[in-house]
């Protein structure tokens, strides 16, 4: 009923090589996974703690936009604040919030 399977020495050598290759692949995959986990741990050690920005700047208390203007973007320079609208870029003073310049877009 349960006859043992007889293998040639050539087949046995091939199976041994295959077994060693699979074992080597397993070891390489485990090492790669450990390196990946190690990189994630060292690169992102403080993921859950909020970081404080290195550069802090003050914004004006209020900026009054012209009537009917739809703001779409905002940016800030050293002493100015720019608000991009549908048809213009409005540049305000960062200290006072007063309108300094209007650049019309085509």
TrEMBL record:
Keywords tagged on the record: Membrane, Transmembrane, Transmembrane helix
Residues passing through the membrane, by range: 20-41
InterPro entries: DUF6476
Keyword Transmembrane: yes
Protein known as: Uncharacterized protein
Organism annotation: Celeribacter baekdonensis B30
